[in-house]
Amino acid sequence: MRLVRNSGTDRGVDSLREWLTQGTNVDLVSPSFSLFAFAELRDALDRVERCRLLLGEPAAILPGLLGGDADIASRGALHGRWLARLASDWIKKRAEIRHAKKAPPQSLVLVDGKPSLHRAMLGTCSFTTEGLGVTPGGRLGLVQATESDAEAADFAEWFRSNWDDLEPNPSAKAHLLEVLDDVGSQRAPSLIYFQILYQMFKDLGDELDEERIIKSATGKDESGLIDRRRTALDEHARLAREATRLKDAQKSVFEHVIYDSGGVERTFAEQLEKNESVKIYAKLPAWFKVPTPLGTYNPDWAVLVEVSGEERLYFVVETKGSMFVDDLRDNEAAKIACGEAHFKALAVGKNPARYIKARTVDDLMDRL
Predict the structure, then answer these.
(1) Which of 65, 325, 344, 346 has its CA 20 to 30 A from that of 190?
(2) Pairing of strands 2-4, 143-145
(3) What is the pLDDT of residue 324?
(4) Predicted local confidence at residue 126, as pLDDT
């Protein structure tokens, strides 16, 4: 046995990526199942032939699906709905699930590799980013890993004994899939605004009484409630405006697309979703800039298209509805021309990324 530091280059996730070879069988005991832990091992888990998951109580699974305090950045990437769909598909094909009566006090990962690799990892190695060492864990966390088949055999026997003591229950898998399907479902962007308002005012109770907020005798907000809430409301109003510019996406690298111009960009995103040649796309953030002698320029989209069985990457500028350089401001048109020259100069190999002007997806396809 050896100690796993679960940080730096000696993390649980690194060992599992090495152990999970094609055709591997995996047994997992964990109180939690995090979508972000699944994302870290997604490629390795695709090589798994069969997985037995022994999890904690069903009611305890949902709170951990979207991680903990250390996963704020991952939640902010808006990949949760996409990951829920991927995890649901994987569980349907490869996993059998049983629930312990109480949350397992420690975690165990057993790998039955082919042809002969058998390994085990145990301790505070739950199926979370913290347990895998992806995000910082507690200083008192202890993870150990076996170094031989013989050491792993004793833990395999312990798992078989506990697994067989639990009666098979088809509803366990059905329940987890139902939860994942709910997390992966689409919701109206307006719900964000309603949730914000609800969270702001749900606990105010009698504070919302008009006489208590603004005294009729003075006409003043003596409670200070209005001033305290005005700043928060301004910020949440901004978020609400963002929400009205969200479009649900299936092919995007993000769960939603935030479009700038309601006509052109929303239509372009809808066309990308419908076109079978488009494999994946992204609305590029403001920090993605192409350097030019006239200053930086921000392309609108990155689009991966399959043409004649070959995938090609395009950086697209749709010029907010104008396809004619004469219609653009001289400076903007010059930057676009510089951007085209920039990518042409960087072209390497038979299939380099290209910079292209297109107002619609049909325009893009016509230029392939």
Answers:
(1) 65
(2) antiparallel
(3) 43
(4) 95
CA distance 51 to 163: 12
Q: Could you tell me the sign of the dihedral formed by the alpha carbons of 287, 288, 291, 296, in that order?
A: negative
Judge contact between 192 and 239, C-beta under 8 A.
yes
The reported pLDDT for the residue numbered 287 is 80
Q: What CATH number does the domain located at 2-183 have?
A: 3.30.870
How does DSSP assign 42-68, residue by residue?
A: HHHHTTEEEEEEEES-GGGHHHHHT--
Query: Are 27 and 3 spatial neighbours (Cβ–Cβ below 8 Å)?
Result: no
Tell me the CA distances in angstroms from 20 to 16, 25, 157, one per residue in order. Answer: 6, 8, 20
- Extract the residue ranges of the chain whose pLDDT is less than 50: 210-211, 213-216, 321-328
Query: What pLDDT, on a 0 to 100 scale, did the predictor assign at position 220?
Result: 53
DSSP 176: H
Give the separation between CA 165 and CA 108, rounded to whole angstroms.
17
Q: Where are the domains of the chain?
A: 2-183, 190-244, 247-366
